[in-house]
Amino acid sequence: MEKIANRQLYFILFMIRCNIAVAFLPVLTTADALQDAWISSMVQFFPAALLLLFFGSLGTRFPDLTVTQYSEMLVGRWTGKALSMVILWIFLHMAAIEARTYANMLITVLLPDTPLVFLIGTMVIASAAAAYAGIEVIGRAADLLFPIYLLMIIGSLLIPLPQLQTMLVNLEPVCARGAGPILRGAITPALFTVQYLVLTILAPSTNEPKRALRTAVWALAGGSAILIPIAIVTVAILGPVRGAQTVFPIFGMVRVITLSEFIDRIEALAVFAWGLGLFVEVAIYLYCGAKGLSQVMGLGNYRPLILPMAVIWTAFGIQVSKNVFQLLEFFKPLFFAPYALIIIIVPFTILWIAYFLRRLSRGRSGAP
Q1: Which helix (H) or strand (E) holds 20?
Q2: What pTM does this model have?
Q3: Most distant CA pair in the chain: distance in Å?
Q4: Which residues partner with 33 through β-bridges?
Q5: Which CATH number does the domain housing residue 328 bear?
Q6: Domain count, the chain
Q7: Cα angle vertex 272, ends 269, 274, to 5°?
Q8: Each residue of 186-206: pLDDT tens digit?
Q9: Residues of the domain holding 120
Q10: Does residue 1 form part of some domain?
Q11: Mean of all residue pLDDT scores within the chain
Q12: 293 and 302 in contact (C-beta within 8 Å)?
């Protein structure tokens, strides 16, 4: 069985989490937190961690099984398959959304005349090749790309520092409108923990499956720690109103920075970082989707599913929304909150109830 180190799992989950911030800074653009977006970045960690513990803790009871396997054990064959398909759906949907958002960004910022199908298709094909090679290859790619990814993110934050001191006034007044806007700003990034459902497929593939949940919590904390300075710098440079109205705030922030008369357009750092993270993220979604679906279908090998899934995901990435503004509307708390909560709460509540009933019946019968 293919295995990855827990360190590699951390790198993978960290990049998945940080891609949210690099994409469109949801603490600022999905609600009205404005100058308090950095506080929302801190607040969102706690509900996000609770959600992660809710669906991740069940897997620690079955460290050698994926969610598609232990769900059939807990609730029966067909009910387990149905619940697994609900969970597998999120891999398709999130991969399509991420690829479409990145393609829209490239068209907006760098490549206005490039066809959308070419950009999405190129990203999915590259990630499909990694997924076909297996989780060990994806893990080694994460080992290689993580330092570059982190360096690009940190570089994007360090470049505006010379101008930051004079612009910190944009972060005031703090908490002037009460806790409501702060909490609303934390809803969407907290619910992006739905991305970490990949843990329910990846955990048995780690060297220490019982520590996979701990690794995921640390990756969540690391991603949240990056989100805070990103929110501070972006709001300080762009201002709270302009930042909230910008489709891609981080790229807008970096673009207004000029190091010298001859050095500008340094938003390429953030574009490059997001591209690296997206490659790993879509590869993981494809791998988890194909592996989970192969187990639902009773197939011995997931690899034959990679190519048809890549084609479907490319088509879905094109059709998932009319434009980037429709995507942003989807991530508003009014729409995204019930969607993400249903995906997480419903199947895992059923699985937890089945697990405790199973434990109870075994206790009454005296079985070990």
Answers
A1: helix 6-24
A2: 0.92
A3: 79
A4: none
A5: 1.20.1740.10
A6: 1
A7: 110
A8: 898 899 999 999 999 999 999
A9: 6-360
A10: no
A11: 86
A12: yes
